[in-house]
Amino acid sequence: MINYGRSVILIQVMPETSVAETLSHVVNLIQNANTSIEKLKEDISTNKDMLEDALNNDPDYRREFDKAKEAAKVRNELKKRIMLQPELMSINTKMKNQKAHLKELKETLSEYLQEYQRQTGSKTIEGSNGELNQIISSARLVKTSNRPE
């Protein structure tokens, strides 16, 4: 059984089905899902463009949009000026460093969890507070510049 978020796909290897055939079937499922995702992204983009065009062609909307854009520009200029205060610059720098450290800690935790799962085969781990936590793995496709041989 393979669980894909809301969809669960059962893959049962029959005695007459080879591992290669099963793998081929899984590859086919992956390719079909990826094709559907790309098509849906294109459809969403097309619909978004149509909505934006309709809104931008409405004179009342366009006028209010331009006002809001100008107000945002003024707000951003004020924010930049205020953020030049030394104490705010210090807090902002500290916060950026904390966010970078948090990202590193999350990546390290992910590596530890993968290793724990590899060694134990378990998808759950008890937290320091005694609560049982589920280990969730996430995989995604990223285009590469070179093709596999």
The beta-strand count equals 4
Q: Which whole number gives the mean pLDDT?
A: 88
The outline comes out as flat
Q: What is the count of helical runs? A: 3
Uncertain parts: 1-5
Task: Kindly name the structural category.
Answer: mainly alpha
Helix content: 55-70%
Quaternary assembly: single chain
Strand portion:
5-15%
Rg (CA only): 25 Å
Give the neighbour order of strands across the main sheet: 1-2
Distance from first to last alpha carbon: 29 Å
Q: N-to-C SSE series?
A: EEHHHEE
What composes the largest sheet?
A: 2 strands, antiparallel
Layout of secondary structure:
Blueprint: E1 2-4, E2 7-9, H1 19-56, H2 59-82, H3 86-120, E3 124-126, E4 132-134
Antiparallel strand pairs: 1-2, 3-4
Describe the structure.
- There is one protein chain.
- With 149 residues, the chain is mostly helical.
- The chain has a domain at 94-125.
- It has three helices and four strands, in the order ββαααββ.
- It has helices at residues 19-56, 59-82, 86-120, and strands at residues 2-4, 7-9, 124-126, 132-134.
- It has a two-stranded antiparallel ribbon.
- The two termini are 29 Å apart.
- Mean pLDDT is 88; it is low at 1-5.
Briefly characterize the structure.
The chain has helices spanning 19-56, 59-82, 86-120; strands at 2-4, 7-9, 124-126, 132-134. With 149 residues, it is mostly helical.
